[in-house]
Write a sequence for this structure.
């Protein structure tokens, strides 16, 4: 595998999931992540989509995960918490920079519509 | 554990599955969903995750392959000289392989084009003189058909080629006169109309015929109205009742595909031995159920020996033969064709060993490159994949070049193929050949690439770094190099031994004395139309006196003679009689009988060993000339001159001369005793033998023109045959396989010697430093050369001896193919061993001398 020299580029859902993880801090587990996206953007994302996106981001080395303590409300099952890695933060920054670079000078026109 | 949980665990593993289920239960409780919701969502998650994993794995595999191919491409480019050499070596082997496979597959390996063709059997007779495919008489056919139990159906047929009358196109047509059962045996159905049946096989039944698709197209333009129309044949007009489909061909081996099949009518009296035994039929049968060919053979033998017991004198020396149809058809060529195919496989292995060595040498140079990649985290599998990709690319390129070359070469081979080889028109670069080439590509890529790849990716990082720096081969790599070299040399020796056997056989065949002078001899079969009548005898005699006189005056003709009752020497067919010698054990011994004119022996170049030739005075006398074989058979060591022999019908003949034995079936055919009588009037059909003093093809037109002037107008057409052409035809198989094996031997030799050169070169290159140190310490150039060549020579000798040993072991397989040479003859091994050793030694000397020119100062400084 070629080592990642440039920050990885993120898809739209990937970016949303990464940002949600950042927003939630220590409490970022799938249910909360999905809720956060819905709450802030009004967008309902399919559960499997969130799950495989998280898996993919972890696979790419942009997220890490750990298992919490078993909680009784969940049938005694542990939560899986996610946190962004350094590469993950760089990827978010890169994506935002890309959008910012592309939106520069468009603010007047974009507000009007 | 519930089913959906098990499914999740299967896809995600225990811990992740638990976390996902926990999430789902939490949401279900929060939103008040029923337990079935959890099941549905769990299944959705599992499917999505499985799909994502599959996708990830495939893309990763693709990218690995893509990267491996990219690396391979770069490596090939970086070492382009070696790469080109490797492709060249493999391409040569692949070309030879594709061409040979195309030839052998088309002729020998491909099944016959009938349903369940492996159940078809051919039945013949055989005698010591004609051990292969003797036609049989209706008597045997009906006995086999009615009394054997091994065949579900059996058919008899005879081919007949004739000229259509001018108003019907005037083209030659091949007709098969056959029993109706042929179509059952072959399981063939007509395209149009119907087939004839057993009802048509009786005298007086309407003459009908089934025509072939090609004939239908040519003659009738594919018009369905052809059914019901009439065709003229030499056996009378026939009405067309059916058309066969395009793919139907029978017999397959015929030079021109048959156009017409018509019923064979055998009068009931000819089905028993009451009227004697005239052999003109070929027989094919379909084996019943699970019957094996061995069981059928025993069955046929049982029926035949019962038949032979009723008339022992007619079946003396005669044996039935039952073979699978495909074997019977290809038996003349199958042996040496399989040998040639095996030789090509050996050549391919030689090529692979050679390329292996090239890649091994190259991987020595790439050790550092590989160690860097390994240290960056490439797994061994990835490294091997990268190196294998290289050999796959090389082999792929070689197959591409090889097939292109084969496409062109196949034209050449097809045109040089000996005449009369069955199915030669099926030879083509078709799907079967492409599939075989693809297989050869994969196998050779693996064979040539695996060892170098495993070697290169094997050693530990640290040692690889060190070795990369010093560029000397590791010990195991050197062992492999030596192993490949020995293999190559051994296989080249094996191949050369096989070539020596076949080339030697060919030379021996050419050296066989056929008993007469075949060059510059022409033959003409004449059948003048002389009406029956009291004077017929005299008119025939007068005609031939005129013919002979006319021909003698043609310039370039130095002798003319005629014979009857037989064919020219070397042409199949002839008359056999039975000879007895009163007062001795010789009774009813089969012998060739020829009736010949004066000066026949002189014209044919048959040597007179004792006594005299015929003269005009012998014409009505019972004089006979016998050959040396007959003399030995009939009279042992006693002087045969003046003794008498008896033919059937109490004819007694007095021996006046002994001549050399003529090998009537060619150099490799066995012969039976031959006796000659003086020609006497009838019959008018004779063979004219003309001795030329110039190249025979030069005077053939003059002979034809002269005969046209002398022969009666209404006589049948005739052709002028050049006997030498028949001789070349009879020796064509030998010529061709000797040529083919020589070609393969030369290619293998060049590739093998090239391999010796390359490997010695690598050895020298890898030991530069060592050589430099030795020279710095005072070793002379001679000593360096000697030590380098000695290393190569040891491997050469080992390889050559192993090769000789292998051919010794394989010698039994050659036994049926060789002629006049013992496969265990020492010379057969001495020739290749010497060739390989000498050429290999010279090839090793070149790089060894280069080693002696190493400048120790320069080398040690750069190292």
């Amino acid at each position: 595998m070629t080592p990642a020299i440039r920050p990885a580029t993120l898809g739209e859902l990937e970016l949303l999931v990464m940002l949600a993880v950042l927003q939630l801090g220590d409490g970022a587990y799938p249910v909360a992540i999905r809720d956060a996206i819905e709450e802030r953007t009004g967008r309902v994302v399919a559960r499997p989509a969130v799950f495989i996106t998280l898996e993919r981001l972890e696979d790419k080395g942009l997220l890490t995960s750990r298992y919490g303590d078993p909680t009784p409300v969940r049938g005694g099952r542990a939560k899986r918490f996610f946190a962004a890695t350094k590469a993950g933060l760089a990827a978010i920054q890169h994506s935002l920079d890309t959008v910012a670079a592309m939106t520069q000078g468009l603010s007047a026109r974009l507000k009007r519509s | 554990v519930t089913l959906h949980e098990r499914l999740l665990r299967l896809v995600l593993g225990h811990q992740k599955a638990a976390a996902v289920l926990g999430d789902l239960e939490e949401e279900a409780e929060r939103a008040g969903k029923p337990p079935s919701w959890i099941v549905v969502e769990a299944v959705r998650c599992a499917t999505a995750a499985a799909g994502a994993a599959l996708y990830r794995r495939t893309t990763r595999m693709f990218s690995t392959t893509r990267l491996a191919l990219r690396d391979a491409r770069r490596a090939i480019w970086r070492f382009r000289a070696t790469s080109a050499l490797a492709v060249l070596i493999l391409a040569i082997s692949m070309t030879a392989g594709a061409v040979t496979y195309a030839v052998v597959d088309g002729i020998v390996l491909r099944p016959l084009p009938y349903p369940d063709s492996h159940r078809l059997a051919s039945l013949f007779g055989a005698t010591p003189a004609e051990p292969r495919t003797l036609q049989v008489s209706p008597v045997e056919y009906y006995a086999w058909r009615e009394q054997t139990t091994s065949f579900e159906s059996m058919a008899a047929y005879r081919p007949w080629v004739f000229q259509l009358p001018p108003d019907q196109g005037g083209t030659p047509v091949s007709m098969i006169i056959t029993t109706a059962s042929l179509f059952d045996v072959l399981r063939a159905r007509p395209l149009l109309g119907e087939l004839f049946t057993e009802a048509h096989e009786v005298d007086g039944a309407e003459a009908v015929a089934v025509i072939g698709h090609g004939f239908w197209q040519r003659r009738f333009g594919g018009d369905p109205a052809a059914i019901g129309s009439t065709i003229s044949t030499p056996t009378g007009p026939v009405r067309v009742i059916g058309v066969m489909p395009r793919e139907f061909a029978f017999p397959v081996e015929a030079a021109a595909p048959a156009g017409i099949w018509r019923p064979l009518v055998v009068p009931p009296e000819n089905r028993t031995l009451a009227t004697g035994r005239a052999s003109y039929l070929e027989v094919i049968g379909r084996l019943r159920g699970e019957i094996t060919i061995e069981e059928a053979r025993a069955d046929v033998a049982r029926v035949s020996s019962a038949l032979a017991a009723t008339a022992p004198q007619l079946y003396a020396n005669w044996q039935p033969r039952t073979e699978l149809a495909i074997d019977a058809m290809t038996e003349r060529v199958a042996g040496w064709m399989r040998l040639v195919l095996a030789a090509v496989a050996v050549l391919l292995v030689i090529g692979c060993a050679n390329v292996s060595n090239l890649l091994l040498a190259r991987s020595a140079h790439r050790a550092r490159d590989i160690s860097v990649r390994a240290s960056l985290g490439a797994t061994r599998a990835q490294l091997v994949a990268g190196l294998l990709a290289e050999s796959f690319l090389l082999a792929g390129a070689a197959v591409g070049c090889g097939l292109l070359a084969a496409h062109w070469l196949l034209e050449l081979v097809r045109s040089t193929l000996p005449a009369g080889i069955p199915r030669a028109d099926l030879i083509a670069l078709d799907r079967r050949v492409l599939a075989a080439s693809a297989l050869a590509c994969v196998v050779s890529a693996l064979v040539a690439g695996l060892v170098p790849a495993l070697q290169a990716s094997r050693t530990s990082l640290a040692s690889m770094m060190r070795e990369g720096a010093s560029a000397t081969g590791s010990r195991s790599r050197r062992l492999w190099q030596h192993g490949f070299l020995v293999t190559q040399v051994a296989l080249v020796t094996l191949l050369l031994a096989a070539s020596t056997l076949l080339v030697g056989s060919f030379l021996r065949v050419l050296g066989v004395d056929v008993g007469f002078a075949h060059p510059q001899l022409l033959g003409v079969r004449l059948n003048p139309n002389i009406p029956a009548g009291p004077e017929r005898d005299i008119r025939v005699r007068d005609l031939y006196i005129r013919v002979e006189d006319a021909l003698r005056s043609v310039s370039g003709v130095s002798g003319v003679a005629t014979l009857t009752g037989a064919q020219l020497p070397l042409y199949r067919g002839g008359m056999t009689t039975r000879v007895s010698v009163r007062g001795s054990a010789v009774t009813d011994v089969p012998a060739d009988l020829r009736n010949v004119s004066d000066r026949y022996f002189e014209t044919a170049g048959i040597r007179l060993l004792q006594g005299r030739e015929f003269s005009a005075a012998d014409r009505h006398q019972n004089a006979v000339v016998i050959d040396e074989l007959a003399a030995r058979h009939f009279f042992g060591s006693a002087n045969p001159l003046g003794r008498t022999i008896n033919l059937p019908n109490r004819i007694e003949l007095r021996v006046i001369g002994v001549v050399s034995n003529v090998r009537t079936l060619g150099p490799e055919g066995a012969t039976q005793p031959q006796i000659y009588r003086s020609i006497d009037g009838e019959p008018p059909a004779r063979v004219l033998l003309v001795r030329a003093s110039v190249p025979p093809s030069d005077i053939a037109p003059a002979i034809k023109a002269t005969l046209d002037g002398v022969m009666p107008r209404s006589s049948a057409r005739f052709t002028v045959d050049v006997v030498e052409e028949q001789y070349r035809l009879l020796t064509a198989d030998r010529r061709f396989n000797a040529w083919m094996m020589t070609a393969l031997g030369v290619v293998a030799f060049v590739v093998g010697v090239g391999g010796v050169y390359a490997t010695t070169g690598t050895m020298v290159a890898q030991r530069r430093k060592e050589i430099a140190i030795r020279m710095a310490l005072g070793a002379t150039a001679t000593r360096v050369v000697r030590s380098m060549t000695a290393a190569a020579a040891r491997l050469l000798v080992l390889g050559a001896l192993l090769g000789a040993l292998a051919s010794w072991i394989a010698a039994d397989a050659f036994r049926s193919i060789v002629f006049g040479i013992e496969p265990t003859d020492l010379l057969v091994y001495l020739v290749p061993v010497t060739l390989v050793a000498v050429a290999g030694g010279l090839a090793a000397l070149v790089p060894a001398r280069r080693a002696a020119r190493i400048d120790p100062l320069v080398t040690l400084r750069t190292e």
Remarks:
- Chain A has a mean pLDDT of 88.
- Chain A touches chain B at residues 1, 3, 29-31, 46-49, 51-52, 55-56, 59, 67, 71, 73-75, 77-80 (CB under 8 Å).
- Chain A has five helices and two strands.
- The two ends of chain A are 44 Å apart (CA to CA).
